[in-house]
Amino acid sequence: MDFNLSKEQRDIVRAAREFAQGEFPDRAAEFDRNETFDLELWKTACELGFVGVFIDEKYGGAGLGFLEHCLITEEFWAVEPGIGQAILSTTFGSELLSLFGSEEQKQEVLPQLVSGQAIMATGITEPDAGSDVTQATTTAVKDGDSWVINGAKMFTTNGNLAKYVLLFCLTDPDNPSRHERHSFILVPTDTPGYESTKIYGKMGIRASDTAELTLNNLQVPLSNLVGEQGRGFHQLMAFFNRTRLHICAQAVGLARGAMEEAIRHAKARRQFGATLASFQVTQFKIAEMATWIRAARNLYYEAAWSVDQGKIDHALIAMAKWFSAEMAVRCADEALQLHGGYGYIDEYKVQRLYRDAKILEIYEGTKEMEKTIISRTLLG
Ligand SMILES: Cc1cc2nc3c(=O)[nH]c(=O)nc-3n(C[C@H](O)[C@H](O)[C@H](O)COP(=O)(O)OP(=O)(O)OC[C@H]3O[C@@H](n4cnc5c(N)ncnc54)[C@H](O)[C@@H]3O)c2cc1C
After folding, report:
1. 361 and which of 15, 164, 325, 368 could share a cystine (Cβ 3.0–4.6 Å)?
2. 277 with 267: CB under 8 angstroms?
3. Which residues constitute the domain of residue 237?
């Protein structure tokens, strides 16, 4: 398999890198400290065509593949993970809507995401339903021409900023299969009954908005159901098979950023009359990081390429997600260790990377869940 990037793909990488290097570094520490983000930066990224490149041209996107979205993600995360997340998570849910939404839903929502007019969020996790999403109890009950939604969602990225939220709701509680009980419903957040509360105090990716949602007798038309009733769990798995690739790209980008910080510091810092870079233990650390990064990148390129060819390999995607996330955490740890005490102070970027990395092993399927998918494929 040939993973040489085309000229167009290399141009995308260069443009994304230049944008991130030019815009992110001066703002990163402030966004991280204050848990804020400048939405103008997101709008500029939309204008420059970095947001939603995988969305069909018919809906204003570039009609490119997931690989191209991953390439942009990797460059943004290599410079500043928090800002990369704040900008690129604004389309979270568009993958599901593109696959299963009605023509009307797609025409209403997708063009706004690409042009910087709207942000989308997806609420699946609940206070008592995390890894086991089939336990989600937010209900959607039919009442005349409407769905009436009641419940709560936890950790919804962009829940305070979104114009639209896809909610994973219990619509068929009596179905004997727990995989046929839920449905996705598209909810405009200005609907009465939608309430969001910002979650402060995250360990990392603090420029990115995270919310707790309360849904209180919220009513939307029956036509806001996404796809077929009761198929939400299966839609979610198809969605994750795409979005987990974004996480792999986030991980590889972050690890690259951490390695670059490590190299810079190792060449500058002198102890025992020599630079840290002259010690073999340092050289081995850099060699290991470079190898892990390359291995993770090849794994996710293969997975993204397969998805873009219409071939879904669940185990391969799970391998890429688990491996790249753990690899990023390890690289950030080694990079901080190389900085010694300075790495522990917030003046140094490496401590932010160390904090930002951990989420990669948690969201969109914990590493334990990814290993469960891989081992089930092998063991049956
Ligand atoms: C910053 C942030 C952003 C997020 N964004 C979103 C979002 O936009 N939308 C959304 O819906 N959710 C979002 N999430 C939620 C995230 O996807 C969940 O936190 C994650 O799926 C884990 O669920 P949980 O936190 O309830 O942990 P739990 O499911 O309670 O798991 C706790 C631990 O137990 C382990 N565990 C659980 N079950 C098993 C098992 N069977 N075998 C072995 N180990 C097991 C897990 O791997 C984990 O280590 C976000 C979370 C964070 C922190």
Report:
1. 325
2. yes
3. 233-379
Closest C-alpha residue for ligand 1 atom 4: 155
Q: CA–CA separation, 361 vs 369, rounded Å?
A: 10
Over 50: is that where the pLDDT of 1 sits? no
State how many domains the chain has: 3
DSSP 3-state assignment of 205? coil
Instruction: Report yes or no on 1 lying in a domain.
Output: no
- Residue 130 Cα to ligand 1 midpoint, Å, equals 5
Indicate if the pLDDT at residue 308 is higher than 90: no
For the whole model, what pTM was predicted? 0.97
pLDDT in tens, 213-259: 999 999 999 999 999 999 999 999 999 999 999 999 999 999 999 99
Active site residues: 364
- b (16+ CB within 10 A) / e for 336-349: bebbeeebeeeebb
Q: CA-CA distance, 148 to 4, in Å (whole number)?
A: 50
Q: 3-class DSSP state for residue 169?
A: strand
Kindly report the CATH number assigned to the domain that includes residue 323.
Answer: 1.20.140.10
Examine the domain organization and report whether 262 and 348 are in the same domain.
Answer: yes
Residue with tokens 């008592």: 128
Number of H-type helices and E-type strands within the chain: 12, 10
Distances in Å between the Cα of 112 and the Cα atoms of 3, 24, 32, 94, 209 are 32, 24, 27, 11, 19
Q: Do 146 and 85 share a structural domain? A: no
Q: Does the CB atom of residue 155 touch ligand 1 within 6 A?
A: yes
Question: How far does the centroid of ligand 1 lie from the alpha carbon of residue 262, in Å?
Answer: 30
Mean pLDDT to the nearest integer, 282-296: 98
Residues 49-105 pLDDT 10s: 999 999 999 999 999 998 999 999 999 999 999 999 999 999 999 999 999 999 999
- pLDDT(3) > 80: no
Return the higher-pLDDT residue of 9 and 3: 9
Euclidean distance between CA atoms 376 and 380, whole angstroms: 5
Same domain, 199 and 250: no
